[in-house]
Here is the input.
Amino acid sequence: MATTVPPSRGRIENPSGYEEVQEVQTEDPLSGELSSSDERLQAVERIAGSEPFQKSSRLPALLRYLAICTLQNDRSGLMEQAIGRAVFGKPRDFNPAEDSSVRVYMRQLRLRLHEYYQNSGPGEKIVIEIPKGGYALAFHRRQIPTLSLEQGAPEIVPVDGQAQSNGFASPWQQISRWVPWLLVAASLLLAITGWFRGSRMVNSNAPVWPISQVIQPGQQTTLVLADASYVLHLLGDREIPLDEYADRHYSDRLIPKDASEGELRLFHYLQLSQITSMADARAAFEVSALAGSQRDNIAIRSAKELNGNILSNGNFIFVGAHTSNPWVQLYQDQLNFRLADGGTNSNRSIENRSPRPGEQNSYSITESTGHSGDDYATISLVPGRGQQGDALLVQGIRLEGTDAAIRFLASSDSRNQMMQKLKSANGGALPRYFEILLHAHSVAGSPATIDCIAARSVLPSRD
Here is the structure.
């Protein structure tokens, strides 16, 4: 949509009921200055100073910047990288592919504009929108219908031309006076009915529990998929600490010195590529479906992409245990059920740090990925670190276990089973933070049965 408009030749109504605001710009659009009398800028200032916008220190500045660039037809200034540098103080080498903060604030800006027009600005003549697919503002003139109480119903003259002389209106006159009010009441009833139906549709498509705990309106949730190339750590004889993994060069020390040229090409390919699995693909699909109307708030990333900047904003969903998604190590100290990896030649298990009556100290498997047999997995919702948002962890001992946990979340019956298990373990109340232990039996690499066998509440303490 065009970001500036030509000199006015009248106003043309569009089907939405808005009119494009077409005014002659009083200053040269390239001069860097705009007239303070421009009613579009005046609307921007009213919105930026309103209560919904005063809750954020960044959104007023972002709205003003977008308005200036739009009215000056500065398309380069409306690029994500330019917005990041001008409004958020990003460095010149700011890469939007690695830092989504601009997109996060743009989503918040759209929500705050909607909130403003719904609550604070019903009388605004100028409506400001941000069409999806770009960052240019669109200005519309809103037609506000008014009903004049001073204008009564048209006088009804009797057929013989004589006015009523007895001081009473005829039945037809009495009815006609009520017609405008009946129309207003009917319109109001239709509006309320439409709102109620719309709200029911939105609510019916809201994120389901427990996904709703980490996917919320106006806030970005990062879905972190496992790093399949992390299998390179099996070349070493020790577990790779998170700080070594984060520097992205941990695998350089694992490549054999006598590796052939072909082996080196393979190692380097694994180092640089973002490789996923069928379990991860299913996780991305199912989580997006469970998020309902909030699916657009999900940013999907590989564990290999994560860094400190990304971890400082929003909520997170981690798919895979620390053997494939090392970032879950950040939350391990909050969990009762922890994955213990004994290496390639040892059994892998989930340790139960505080067994309750009827529970085992550990739950282990002997089969490797791709074989039939038992699997164990956990689903945990834990508080984030510091200012970081909450995190939902989906971990399996092997690939089939993680897949079983994702399928479990996707089933409404299974979610109800999990909810009842948590209430039973927490004195009848559903805890805000929790962890559950799942047992699955896989046949030919696919889970045939999945059951919740243990549950715990997690204390909401933060670092």
Notes: The radius of gyration is 30 Å. The chain has a mean pLDDT of 77.
